[in-house]
């Protein structure tokens, strides 16, 4: 399973109760009511533990975390040492 | 002349400062003139659809410019604004629509399941206004798009005669138990409370409020009305989950006020760059907190983290009071940290015994409020109304006492009291102790049925990190509480179910316990 599939599975299992219907790579977690604020905390905790990446408070922005695609890009950037949105804007 | 209708606030500010920015949302900046015109057009549309004074119009929209235009448009037409939670389930929604018999519904994609099934709407519904859709066709039909609806004629200001006592809004409470109740608020209720709040917060046209709470929740509605009343600016940010984007926008927009419920602040303290932005929030004049008891530990940490010039207003209220009842003056907060303060201007809050007699200082009874902000009653529920409203005022269901200086303290809720082995226990006291351990993000203490004790205490706790053990938490409680108040079990969970307002949903927490 690649990174995006893993993230998708985490979201489906934890927030959609296994029902993946309608969830695309670009579905907005917040606008579409998929994840709430405590859910974002859970997602961040999962990313830190599963992928051993540190997520700074300044990085808690929708550009990094608000869809399966964005999360995957964010984590890949972190693992590859690339730049991510956030920090000091 | 003193303004007496809720929408007069918008009209008055639009006349005084038409080009002032009233709303900021997702890069859009809307002036008072534009907002008032949109509300007039919406009102004109409603009148064209045959909406009469007193008719209910349901608003199923997330926070945004269209929500605000709809809210004031409905009021201008003399109708009753009924904002509902966008996440209301189909079953509850059907029940609410049935009891409301609305003339129409304004909704968006998020509520699209209703649009698809509008045949389920009661026959009273004469139109559905899809705020984010556009339809080319005109003529007699049920579903309208936003642009299409707003191309008609404006309802001229004062086009409908509305009595100050007329029903303005029905706001559904999340309700700590059972079904949500529709709280009926008149123009007078909302106007008087808006005035009290602008007075004690000393709001002016220079105030810029960041709103992360939903407008369908009474506190969100109050933030909107108070800022429209003074000609201030409301910045809408629906992305509170991404705290860094909220804090950053507060700095960029020079926000002067921020408001939240206890979980808002718990979350900000735990996972946001608030502390590192201390120097970049020079305009943040104050923060307000309401929506339930906030643990002492969070208040103390908040006072440390907020910029030194930012005042913290701890407040107390109820939907039934059009929002606000009491507040603590920030300068007294350090010495009155556990208090909800004193009544706001024009309101009285007394501590009464079960016979309606006022209790002396220090004795515990029920908090009973009276004033022009107290609701008319619950929609279609005279029995429920009679249970909480009488000649003494509104019975809040909150238990508490008053100190010698008149400051009030809430010790818990009547309907949350748990009977454990012959003792009456208030979960709030136990929650407060658990939070003071410093190792939890949030906690709820519940009573599970127990054949021996009647109820046994179980805590659902969300750890801050570092994974405290349930044993260490129980042992911490033993050091602070008598044995019968120590939870028999502490379950560590990832999150607590909440209402969209951010308040903890105790009923869903209980069902989590299985």
From TrEMBL, chain A:
Carrier domain span: 1-79
Entry-linked PROSITE patterns: CARRIER
Signal peptide range: none
Pfam families tied to this protein: PP-binding
Cited InterPro entries: ACP-like_sf (IPR036736), PP-bd_ACP (IPR009081)
Protein name in UniProt: Acyl carrier protein
The species this protein was found in: Geomonas propionica
UniProtKB/TrEMBL annotation, chain B:
Coiled-coil residue spans: none
Sequence ranges assigned to domain AMP-binding enzyme C-terminal in this UniProt record: 429-503
Record-level Gene Ontology MF annotations: ligase activity
Protein keywords: Ligase
AMP-dependent synthetase/ligase domain segment(s): 11-379
Cited PROSITE patterns: AMP_BINDING
Name under which the protein is recorded: Acyl--CoA ligase
Native species: Geomonas propionica
Lineage: Bacteria, Pseudomonadati, Thermodesulfobacteriota, Desulfuromonadia, Geobacterales
């Amino acid at each position: 399973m690649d990174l995006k599939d893993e993230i998708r599975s985490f979201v489906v299992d934890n927030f959609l109760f296994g029902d993946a219907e309608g969830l695309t790579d670009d579905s907005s977690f917040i606008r579409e009511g998929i994840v709430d604020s405590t859910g974002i905390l859970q997602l961040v905790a999962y990313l830190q533990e599963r992928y051993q990446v540190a997520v700074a408070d300044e990085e808690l922005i929708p550009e990094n975390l608000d869809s399966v695609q964005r999360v995957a890009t964010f984590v890949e950037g972190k693992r590859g040492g690339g730049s991510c949105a956030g920090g000091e804007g | 002349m003193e303004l007496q209708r809720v929408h007069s606030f918008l009209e008055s500010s639009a006349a005084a400062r038409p080009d002032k920015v009233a709303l900021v949302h997702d890069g859009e900046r809307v002036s008072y003139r534009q907002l008032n015109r949109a509300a007039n057009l919406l009102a004109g549309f409603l009148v064209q659809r045959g909406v009469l004074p007193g008719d209910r119009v349901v608003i199923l929209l997330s926070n945004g410019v269209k929500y605000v235009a709809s809210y004031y448009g409905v009021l201008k037409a003399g109708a009753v604004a009924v904002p509902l939670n966008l996440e209301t389930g189909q079953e509850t929604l059907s029940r609410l629509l049935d009891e409301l018999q609305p003339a129409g519904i304004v909704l968006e994609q998020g509520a699209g399941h209703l649009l698809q099934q509008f045949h389920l709407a009661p026959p009273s519904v004469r139109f559905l206004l899809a705020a984010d859709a556009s339809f080319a066709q005109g003529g007699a039909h049920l579903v309208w798009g936003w642009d299409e609806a707003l191309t008609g004629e404006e309802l001229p200001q004062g086009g409908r005669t509305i009595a100050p006592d007329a029903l303005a809004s029905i706001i559904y409470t999340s309700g700590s138990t059972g079904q949500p109740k529709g709280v009926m608020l008149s123009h007078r209720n909302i106007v008087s409370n808006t005035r009290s709040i602008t007075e004690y917060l000393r709001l002016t046209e220079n105030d810029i409020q960041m709103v992360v709470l939903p407008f369908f929740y009474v506190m969100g509605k109050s933030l909107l009305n108070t800022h429209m009343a003074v000609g201030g600016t409301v910045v809408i940010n629906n992305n509170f989950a991404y705290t860094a984007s909220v804090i950053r926008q507060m700095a960029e927009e020079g926000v002067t006020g921020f408001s939240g419920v206890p979980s808002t602040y718990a979350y900000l303290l735990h996972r946001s760059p608030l502390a590192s932005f201390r120097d970049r929030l020079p305009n943040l004049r104050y923060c307000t907190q309401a929506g339930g008891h906030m643990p002492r530990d969070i208040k103390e940490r908040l006072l440390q983290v907020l910029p030194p010039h930012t005042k913290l207003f701890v407040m107390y209220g109820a939907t039934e009071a059009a929002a606000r009842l009491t507040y603590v003056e920030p300068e007294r907060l350090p010495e009155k940290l556990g208090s909800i303060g004193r009544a706001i201007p024009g309101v009285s809050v007394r501590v009464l015994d079960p016979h309606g007699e006022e209790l002396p200082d220090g004795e515990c009874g029920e908090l009973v409020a009276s004033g022009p902000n107290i609701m008319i009653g619950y929609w279609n529920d005279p029995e429920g109304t009679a249970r909480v409203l009488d000649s003494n005022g509104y019975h809040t269901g909150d238990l508490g006492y008053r100190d010698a200086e008149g400051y009030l303290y809430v010790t818990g809720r009547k309907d949350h009291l748990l009977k454990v082995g012959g003792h009456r226990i208030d979960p709030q006291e136990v929650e407060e102790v658990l939070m003071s351990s410093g190792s939890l993000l949030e906690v709820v203490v519940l009573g599970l049925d127990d054949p021996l004790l009647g109820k046994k205490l179980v805590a659902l706790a969300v750890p801050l990190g570092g994974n405290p053990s349930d044993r260490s938490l129980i042992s911490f409680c033993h050091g602070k509480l008598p044995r019968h108040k120590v939870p028999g079990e502490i379950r560590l969970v990832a999150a607590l179910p909440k209402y969209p307002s951010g308040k903890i949903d105790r009923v869903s927490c209980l069902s989590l316990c299985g």
